[in-house]
Amino acid sequence: MFAAAVALSALTGCTRTSYAIHTNDGRTIVSDGKPKESDSGL
């Protein structure tokens, strides 16, 4: 699973900014662009 996430981030990382978020239960969420949250200002 980790190798697939690395390969996916390598493919998408060259063309645009993406973030791989690893959850505590072992899932990986790949976002397109920087995540934004208006409530916290992040």
TrEMBL record:
<dbReference type="InterPro" id="IPR010305">
    <property type="entry name" value="YgdI/YgdR-like"/>
</dbReference>
<protein>
    <submittedName>
        <fullName>YgdI/YgdR family lipoprotein</fullName>
    </submittedName>
</protein>
<feature type="domain" description="Lipoprotein YgdI/YgdR-like SH3-like">
    <location>
        <begin position="19"/>
        <end position="42"/>
    </location>
</feature>
<keyword id="KW-1003">Cell membrane</keyword>
<keyword id="KW-0472">Membrane</keyword>
<dbReference type="InterPro" id="IPR047807">
    <property type="entry name" value="YgdI/YgdR-like_SH3-like"/>
</dbReference>
<dbReference type="Pfam" id="PF06004">
    <property type="entry name" value="DUF903"/>
</dbReference>
<keyword id="KW-0449">Lipoprotein</keyword>
